[in-house]
Design a protein that fits this description.
By secondary structure, the protein is α+β, with helices and mostly antiparallel strands. Helix content is 25%, strand content 32%. It has eight helices and 18 strands. The strands form three sheets. It has a six-stranded antiparallel β-barrel. It has a five-stranded parallel beta sheet with strand order 3-2-1-4-7, sandwiched between helices. The two termini are 41 Å apart.
């Protein structure tokens, strides 16, 4: 098989490429240049896509003896990932740019170009598994629960999955690093990247302020009483406790959290922890990885990349998905992805647009 191996410059993608070479595939390494002005290096686990990362990817490819290219997708990355990320925060929602990147860049732009160039599949270092069942490619969780990345891959459709390879899905991370060291790969001990790649210093509110600007607004409690001020609602997300700087203590003396963000009137609403409890989720723009499930089924829903799945009754409804949670969740924000599982099988995903919290419906236009 002719495989295009996406090599980020980290240990996972390097070992994924090495395994494909060992398996006898015709492998070409490619590093995606996603930044118009890449930094020369990254600091520890902060960010990625630096010049250092591209050099590390090239060195790994040289060590494996495979061709290597750098493809510039920076313009498309801005249009498909960064601009929508800013727009979502401007609308008071909380997006996940990693899902968007997988959906629009790694398994759309890269895969499209790879197929045009005669490659059969794209491979990455994601920790997830695929299996072909009756001609259908199904996506499953990784065997390493601590590294499972099926959540951020749940935006892939059947056509994309059928041309995707995840060589690390059956491995533990510790074994991958040991394998990299045995292969003489210089990235064997390189820290994983944990932050948003285009915000390498980790200061998302500061970065957003540069893009959106700052506008003073009010912080009010659920009764409408003024309890503080802010200099930009994009500094907040549902469930946030720190950084509120409230001038009026809660009547019961308990901590308060962000319950709602109202972009139209530039207001942040705060209240007690009980106001974060969610029993019902509404979501739009569903993507079904294999095929659309029956109208209503019992499965599990997960709303964060490293969150715990909870039992749920999931219903495909016109234009979206309705989710009744059997175990409540806290701090669910519009803009997040809800990913649906049947055990280890990834059924699909959708974008959260509304919730019922403690009997009060909260929703935002998409």
């Amino acid at each position: 098989m002719k495989v295009l191996a996406a090599m980020s410059g980290g240990v996972d993608s390097a070992v994924a490429a090495a395994r494909l070479v060992e398996a006898g595939h015709d492998v070409t390494g490619v590093h995606l240049a996603l930044s118009r002005n890449p930094r020369s290096h990254r600091e520890g686990s902060r960010g990625c896509c630096s010049l250092e990362d591209s050099f590390d990817a090239r060195r790994a490819a040289d060590r494996l003896g495979i061709p290597f290219y750098v493809w510039d997708f920076s313009d498309r990355f801005v249009a498909e990932v960064i601009d929508p990320f800013i727009a979502e925060y401007r609308a008071g929602r909380t997006p996940n740019p990693c899902l968007r990147c997988n959906e629009r860049i790694k398994f759309a732009a890269l895969l499209e170009r790879g197929l045009d160039f005669g490659y059969d599949a794209v491979a990455t270092g994601h920790y997830a598994r695929t299996k072909v069942v009756d001609g259908v490619t199904k996506l499953y969780r990784s065997v390493d629960p601590g590294k499972d990345q099926s959540y951020v891959l749940a935006v892939l459709n059947q056509d994309q999955l059928s041309h995707s390879l995840f060589p690390l899905g059956n491995s533990l991370k510790m074994n991958v690093r040991q394998e990299a060291a045995a292969l003489g790969l210089s990235v064997a001990d390189k820290p994983d990247s944990n932050d948003i790649c285009f915000i390498p210093d980790g200061d998302t509110p500061g970065w957003l302020s540069e893009k959106i600007g700052s506008a003073d607004g009010e912080i009010r409690d659920e009764s409408g009483a003024l309890v503080g001020h802010h200099n930009g609602y994009h500094h907040f997300t549902i469930g946030q406790r720190r950084g509120l700087r409230l001038g009026v203590p809660a009547p019961d003396g308990k901590p308060r959290y962000v319950l709602d963000i109202e972009p139209v009137n530039n207001t942040v609403v705060v209240g007690g922890a009980e106001g974060l409890t969610v029993h019902h989720i509404e979501a739009i723009r569903p993507v079904w990885c294999s095929s659309e499930p029956v109208e209503t089924w019992h499965g599990q829903a997960q709303v964060r990349a490293h969150g715990d799945p909870v039992p749920a009754i999931i219903s495909a409804v016109p234009g979206g998905v309705a989710v009744e949670l059997e175990d409540s969740l806290r701090g669910v924000a519009p803009g997040q992805a809800a990913v649906f599982y049947d055990g280890d099988l990834v059924v699909g995903s959708a974008t959260i647009c509304g919730t019922d919290r403690a009997g009060v419906k909260a929703e935002q236009a998409a």
